[in-house]
Amino acid sequence: MAAPSPSARVPDRAADPDLAVEARELRKAFGGTTVLDGLSFTARRGRVTALLGPNGAGKTTTVACCEGLRRVDSGTLRVLGLDPAADGAALRPRVGVLLQDGGLPTGAGALEVLRHVAGLHADPLPVPALAERLGLGAFARTRVRRLSGGQRQRLALACALVGRPELLFLDEPSAGLDPQARLAVWEVVRAARDAGVAVVLTTHLMEEAERLADDVVVVDHGRRVAAGSPQELTRGAAALTFSAPSGLPTASLAAALPAGAVVAEPEPGRYVVTGVPADPRTAATVTSWCATHDVLPQGLGAARRTLEDVFLDLTGRTLR
Predict the structure, then answer these.
(1) Are 45 and 20 in contact (CB under 8 A)?
(2) What is the pLDDT of residues 57-116, one digit of tens each?
(3) What pTM was estimated for this model as a whole?
């Protein structure tokens, strides 16, 4: 690992040594558009932190600031105890980055690229073992320009990991992957976490966040709107679900229920009732309402709400 540059700031010795990223009241605007509006969050070593949010919520800008690619307008940002905007030279050997567009050289072979990146680090992971784990052997000699999107993604992840980073930023790590490759990538991410690496990932796949993340930060309009483990965010959030013909007047059903009830049709013919207890009394009201509308509800019962349900409740269901 390369030594920090003489100009690099010394990490705050009083800071929590487990904190890999500490962001406080981050603000960033482009022209007259506010992208980050007082965002605060932390990411710890040996844990996977998922940043979730709809398109335009500020996730990409947040990660770009953490990587030193952009500067925040105000707020405090520390990455491995350093200022990423000022101390990039000291941080680069310690941080691995997987971008959605990996920026890989397109004219070289896949394994040639990985070996080149490994050679830039003082103590890289063994290239053959890493290549085998991510299944790069099947296209080792194929030029990057001829790789599929999923193959490029696996190669980019190998390049992010090969330098033994202390902190790993993953932008949509499962983009373009088939189910087998997705499971392999998830195992690699878990292994990095178990080795003490701090992993920060952005994803639109709620299953990926539920399966991988120890901590979740939901971002919307540049602000943190919720944070906690997947279990904490979904705890106690049972919902009543049932199937019926699509297009029922959900507002009318909600009005028949106690105050606070919300009825949604997240997909055609599937209804979810939230905001009220998922108990026999609520089920009886739903059944009675359906009877007056000549509807027979199928599969009526309580179900644990998923992270996707919580995400949609927090950020809305309208397209951005």
Answers:
(1) yes
(2) 999 999 999 999 999 999 999 999 999 999 999 999 999 999 876 678 999 999 999 999
(3) 0.82
